Amino acid sequence: MQTNVPVPESQIQPNDLLSIVITSPRPEAAALYNGGTGTTVNPGYLVSKDGYIEMPVLGNVKVAGLNKEQVRLKIEKSLAEGKLLVDPSVSVRILNFKVTVLGEVNHPAVLNVPTEKITLIDAIAFTGDLTVTARRDNILIIREQNGQKVIKRVNLNSMELFNSDYYYLKAEDIVYVEPNKTKIINSTTRTPQWIGLVLSGVTFALSIATFIRTK
Questions:
Q1: Domain identity same for 38 and 104
Q2: Are residues 145 and 82 in the same domain?
Q3: What pLDDT does 188 receive?
Q4: pLDDT digit string (tens) for 26-78?
Q5: Which pLDDT value is given to residue 44?
Q6: Distant-in-sequence, close-in-space partners of 141: CB < 8 Å, separation ≥ 6
Q7: What is the pLDDT of residues 130-168, one digit of tens each?
Q8: Which of its termini does the chain have fewer beta carbons within 10 Å around, N or C?
Q9: Total number of domains in the chain
Q10: Could you give the angle at the alpha carbon of 170 between the alpha carbons of 175 and 160, nearest 5°?
Q11: What span, in angstroms and rounded, lies between the C-alpha atoms of 39 and 31?
């Protein structure tokens, strides 16, 4: 099944770890930015809470809110205009690209994604697929946009998923798979059903709170 949805460009956030590799026709000049030699690469630039990275010679560079392409162009322009390197070429990667999958999957986990590309279906597969008591028509995806938490519900049974903006996950997305009514009823024997629903909601809230505290 093909999708017309492009792979989203993640915006860089505070606490992201970036790989920035700089090359030029003079490798010895570019080595300063890559860890000191032409073959040793800096282990990563950590984005500060204010959204900056600290680079040799360039100093503090604001990167939060930009995507990788924008950061690449910004650094190349600074190097060229400052006459620091001749014909610089910059490569940028997000080293800590990860998504979290919770709830009714066989192996809930935080997934590190070195390729920076993962679909909702892939994420569920990597966590051992849905359990038999999972609700497939109401998957919650929690995403941060412009500093706000946005919650989207998607239906795995619908073909519309393949053209949804949530088909491809973004860095730091949280996927929560709810239990179906059968599990709620079975887990609350001799307990009114509404209590089971409340307990399910509390469990979800605690899971999210724990994840946020440990980030």
A1: no
A2: no
A3: 56
A4: 888 888 888 644 444 557 899 999 999 999 889 999 999 999 999 999 999 99
A5: 85
A6: 120, 151, 152, 153, 154, 166, 169, 173, 174, 175, 176
A7: 999 999 999 999 998 777 889 999 999 999 999 899 999
A8: N
A9: 2
A10: 70
A11: 8
Domain span at 71: 17-94
CATH of the domain at 183: 3.10.560.10
* DSSP collapsed to 3 states, the chain: CCCCCCCCCCCCCCCCEEEEEEECCCHHHHHHHHCCCCCCCCCCEECCCCCEEEECCCEEEECCCCCHHHHHHHHHHHHHHCCCCCCCEEEEEECCCEEEEEECECCCEEEECCCCCCEHHHHHHHCCCECCCECCCCEEEEEEECCEEEEEEECCCCHHHHHCCCCECCCCCEEEECECHHHHHHCCCCCCHHHHHHHHHHHHHHHHHHHHHHC
- What is the rounded CA–CA span in Å between residue 105 and residue 179? 10
Whose structure tokens read 């599990």?
183
Q: How far apart are CA 89 and CA 76, in angstroms?
A: 6
Task: Say if residue 77 is in the same domain as residue 134.
Answer: no
CATH code: domain of residue 87 = 3.30.1950.10
Tell the residue number behind the tokens 């322009």, with chain if given.
77
d(CA 86, CA 76): 10
Location of structure tokens 């946005």: 150
- Sign, CA dihedral 191-197-200-202, equals negative
The answer to whether the Cα torsion of 215, 50, 112, 18 is positive or negative is: negative
